[in-house]
Amino acid sequence: MQTILQLNTSLSGAAGQSSQLAGAFAAALGRASGARVTVRDLATQPVPHLTLERFQAFGTPVAERTLEQQRYVAESDALVEELRRADTIVLGLPMYNFGVPSTLKAYFDHVARSGVTFRYTPNGPVGLLTGKKVFVFATRGGRYAGTPGDLQTAYVRQFLGFIGLRDVEFIYAEGLALGAEQRDAALGRALERIGQLAA
Ligand SMILES: Cc1cc2nc3c(=O)[nH]c(=O)nc-3n(C[C@H](O)[C@H](O)[C@H](O)COP(=O)(O)O)c2cc1C
After folding, report:
1. Closest by alpha carbon to 103, among 157, 52, 156, 47?
2. Of 74, 84, 92, 167, whose Cβ has the fewest other Cβ atoms within 10 Å?
């Protein structure tokens, strides 16, 4: 069975505007395609910051890992396995202080694994999570898409591409803090796009 992985990263959990758009799309796509939707919410199930101990565990040969290192690697492996199993990834992405939620950065730090999700070759890095489609629902209080102020899109695209996720579509809902009229119009356009994408 096809699997859709929905990643919520809003500090408001499922109530976040990005989570609601991501959830509406994942549900519609699931209905249309018969795929199963799995939800990981990084506000309610936060991934810890990457510490030196955790990072060193990733690089320690399997046979030499301490019990603590085995636990650290198992946590990361579970996140990677969930990504690997997904055919489609739906990411809810609010902009916080010009960047991504810190919970998403911590998650990225746990799924960027040398030899597991990417490997270095003489020709440069190669991403290993291939053959998946990613939809990103980016919500912002202001307006940045298509301007040099949108550092978030380039960063997320770069990271996802690094681990092999190159087929990425961004759907923006911007100006959500610029008054009810602009907010409702932006959310309406995003919902319209969801209808088109899931049809
Ligand atoms: C801590 C915090 C920081 C924010 N920083 C920005 C920002 O840098 N630029 C912006 O356009 N909006 C910013 N916003 C507004 C959010 O991007 C906007 O409300 C978004 O819809 C939140 O999505 P969510 O409801 O899924 O969390 C910020 C909101 C919060 C709570």
Report:
1. 47
2. 74
> pLDDT tens across 104-116, in order?
999 999 999 999 9
For residues 106 and 138, give the distance between their C-alpha atoms in angstroms, rounded to a whole number: 18
Confidence (pLDDT) at 53: 98
- The per-residue pLDDT for 199 is 87
111 Cα to the center of ligand 1, angstroms: 24
DSSP state of 49: P
For 27-47, the DSSP string reads HHHHHHH-PEEEEEETTTSPP
User: Which residues neighbour 39 within 8 Å (Cβ) at sequence distance 6 or greater?
Assistant: 6, 8, 14, 23, 26
Question: Considering the entire predicted model, what is its pTM?
Answer: 0.97
Mean pLDDT value across residues 180-194: 98
| Mean pLDDT calculated for residue range 111-128 | 96
Q: Which two tokens stand for residue 198?
A: 């899931």
Rounded to an integer, the average pLDDT of 86-113 is 98
Which token pair is 182?
């602009």
Residue 46 φ/ψ, nearest 5 degrees: -70, 145
Identify the residue whose C-alpha is closest to ligand 1 atom 30: 96
Mutation to probe ligand 1, out of 96, 139, 183, 184 (largest number of atoms < 8 A from CB) = 96
CB atoms within 10 A of CB 20: 21
